[in-house]
């Protein structure tokens, strides 16, 4: 297996803090959008944990069949010191950096919260649908939390298919290019309610203490029942302490989700960690119509969940908070 594309996912070293804790208590118009915390599909599990297959009942594994190898047998710095400032697509890395999954398998984790798409298809109002789509876009990166290894690089022409009748979708992806490495995917609802497709090409750089993955490629979601198409790109991912210390990950950058049918747009700002870590994992943004009138305020954390609130209620809360010194 060559190292044509190095994609790191890592563990956060920070505990959660309260984000606008008084907002939901102060105003009943705060609406929970989604809980985005990752479920139990983590990279490393003990062999033999998969439940046995029963006649007539299809069961899915809850952990990988092999544990990850240790990284204590070699010097990470001796490998990475030659990579500072370089694009990592041509650098060969030891297998100890990998988790026992292909990058194509990792792509299917986009669908962990597919119930949001089914819900969006049932909702009558464009604003409600955009809220669900925004939550789905944020939840796609939630599985990267508490992941210490990178997936294996797929071979050119390699494919992976997943059908989950219990969750109502099928997903197929293929490695369509080797230089540069590009993975394409296509998913559809089993009830013919949505299509989800795109291509992924992350450009990675090593900066001495961190590895940064700049996302490339556009993601498209089609809600067939409403004849709507949404597009967006993922935020930038950065893994810190790759040489020494506890690995932790942050997502930062601006994600714009555009509804090409109505002109509505959701603008989400993934906050960088900052000096004291207060902004770690935070997401803030808004939904606006084609005339740039704000329809909803979105806030939360990509590791926990998102909330939506009426803009007027949000401004009123912020005004009271400033007067009473809540954020000082």
TrEMBL record:
Keywords: Lipid transport, Lipid-binding, Transport. GO terms for cellular component: cytosol; perinuclear endoplasmic reticulum; plasma membrane. InterPro entries: OSBP_sf, Oxysterol-bd, Oxysterol-bd_CS. Residues 40-67 are annotated as: Disordered. It comes from the Eukaryota. GO terms for biological process: lipid transport. Gene3D superfamilies: 2.40.160.120. GO terms for molecular function: cholesterol binding. SUPFAM superfamilies: Oxysterol-binding protein-like. Belongs to the OSBP family. This is Oxysterol-binding protein. The lineage of its organism: Eukaryota, Metazoa, Chordata, Craniata, Vertebrata.
